[in-house]
Structure formats: C-alpha cells, structure tokens
Amino acid sequence: DAGEHDSFMHKELLEQPACAEAVLRGRLDERFGTGHLGGLNLDARELRAIRRVKILGCGSAYYVGQMGASLIEELARIPADAEAASEFRYRNPIVEPDTLYVAVSQSGETIDTLLAVQEIQRKGGRVIGLVNVVGSAIARQVDGGIYLHSGPEVAVASTKALTNMFLAFGMLAVQLGRVRDLSIADGKRLIAGLTRIPEQIDQVLATEADLALVAKRLAEAESLFFIGRVRGFPVAREGAQKFKEITYRHAEAYQTSELKHGPLALISPEVPTVAIVPDDELVERNVAALHEIAARGGPLVVITHESVDLGDLEGIVAGRIDVPRNERELDPILLTIPLQVLAYHAALELGHDIDKPRNLAKSVTVE
Ligand code: BG6
C-alpha cells in the first residue's frame, strides 16, 4: 500500500531520487567519460555502425522518447526521432539494418509497443528496450536493452519510471557519442551531470509546498497551455499529458515558436500558460513569447532557472518555479519534475482519484 501517502503517485514521486541512483549505479565509466551499458549486447564496432535511431513508445514513454531523441542527436550527432508506437506499425514502416530501434515501456506489456517491436524484427531490424518490468513481454522480445530499476510503479501517471527512462537515454547518448566525436572532456562533463541529477531532483521535490500553491490556482482553469521549444517541447508535452490525465482539464502542449501561428488566439485571462524557459540559447526568444502572452492577459507559470531574468514580467507572473541547473542537454528531466508535482496537487485539489484516473489503465495490453 501507499503507506503514509495519500496515493501511490505521491509515494512514487518522492522515490525518484533513490530510483534515479539505482538506474545509474554501475553504469557510468568516469575514467573514459562514457556509459557502461552491458545489456545492449552491442560492441563498440556495432555501436559505431548505427546511422539512425528510431524510438518507439506510447503516452509518457513516447514523450520521454522525444527527449531521448534530442539527447542522442545532440551528443552523438546521429539522426534520431521518436514516434508513437501505436502509429508506427500501421504505416508499413521502412526498417533499415543500420538503424537502432529503441522500444520504451514501463510495464513492458503495452501491446502497441510490443507489436511494433515484432514488426521491426520481422523485417530484420535490431531493437533494444528501455523497460522497467523485468521479464515482461517487451523485455523478453528485444535484442538487448537497459532495465530501468525503478521498482514497481502503481499509479497510472508515470513518474519514477519516466525519470529513469530519461537517465537511461542520457547514458545511451553519451555512450553512442563517445564511440564517435564526443570528446572525453564532454563525456566526463555529462557523466558528472548525470551523477548530480538524483540530488537535484530532491531539491525540486523539497519545493513541493510552493508548487502546491501554484497548482491550486491552475486547478481552477478549464483549459491550459503548456509551451516549450526544442529541448523544452517534449517537457511541455509530458507536462500537459500528466495534467490532463489526472485533473481532466484540457491541457494542450504547443511549441513556443508556434504560438503566433495559432494558439495565441485562445490566450485570455481564463487560459493560463505553463512555460518551460530554461537558461539556454533560446532564453531571449522564450521570454519574448511570454510578453506576447502577458500582453493578452494570459496568466503565466514559468518553469525556469534562477539565472533567467524575466524583467518586468517578474511582478506579474502567477508563479515562478526555479529548478537547479545541470548541463543544458540534461536539463529537461529537472524541468519535468515540477510538472508532475503541479499535476498531482491540482488533481488533489479537485478531489480526483489520483492513482486510477477515469478511462485509463496502467498498461494497455489489448489492441
Ligand atoms: C498508457 C498509460 O496507457 O500507457 C500511460 O495510461 C503510459 O500512462 C502508457 O505512459 C505507456 O505504458 P508503458 O507501460 O508502455 O510505459
């Protein structure tokens, strides 16, 4: 049972620092600044031969797959993308021998992901799994992989498994990079960054009381936007997913850059926006977009870093949440944690069954 917690989601949220340590344990090679992922069943030559990476998953696993794709592109400079496994196998997918396919699943039982794996293998493709449940159908089907070591996850809304999916992608991206052009110095920088994440997650979770106050205000809205761009966009998608799953509010994710091409028409004092604004190369553009929203009376909650100067927006934002900085490439997971906490507290405020949202199942095992 959930012990002293009101829900498994809350218990699992708070377990994240310890779970994150578990997925990293024994898999970081600090000397060579690389990952040490024995379960991939791929030697250096095979890793070197990979020309493309295709990531498949459903729901949150798909969104974290998008985060993983951008890690792999940035660190290994291999073209990578993520696709909903539920769509992939219905479009007679092109399967290539020098593509590494990655199936992402907490349960390891999601039928859409399992059938996508089988379709790839039937066409001669190689698939690795990022799976939490040991011995599950996908874990048995794949050609190798990385177990997530999150422990059992009960709440439908994934938290700790999702975080470990991200960390597994981080290690995979560094390892793929280090057999290519990622320098030893960059490798060491990223390995050190990964090592800091458990403690930094703890720091974010320590702000739960502040997040709960912001969540109360968000819970009042019928409709919300979650925005981010490039590395921040999958964060926004995952944030909107979590929010809609357990609060039943309309939460829509958008690229910040696309605001002016459509959704700006919907911005009003009734429609809050949760904006992902890391201190990266896009910060000025992101802050400019916040001005566009503020000018239309849209309430803003900004998930950002302490070093970001919001200027005259500072006095009007409905909530500013600063997360600790890591390496830019690894920041997405730390930006995701407050979104889990916001969704949880908004659902609590609304009195919903947090662990078992209506119409949803933890794993969908039928077509
Ligand atoms: C959905 C769940 O049905 O399956 C989501 O509601 C989950 O929360 C998705 O992310 C994928 O599940 P799994 O087990 O394959 O990661």
From TrEMBL:
It catalyses: D-fructose 6-phosphate + L-glutamine = D-glucosamine 6-phosphate + L-glutamate. The gene is glmS_2. The chain holds residues 252 to 618 of 618 of the full protein. Coiled coil: none annotated. Residues 43-182, 214-357 form the SIS domain. This is Glutamine--fructose-6-phosphate aminotransferase [isomerizing]. Transmembrane segments: none annotated. Its EC number is 2.6.1.16.
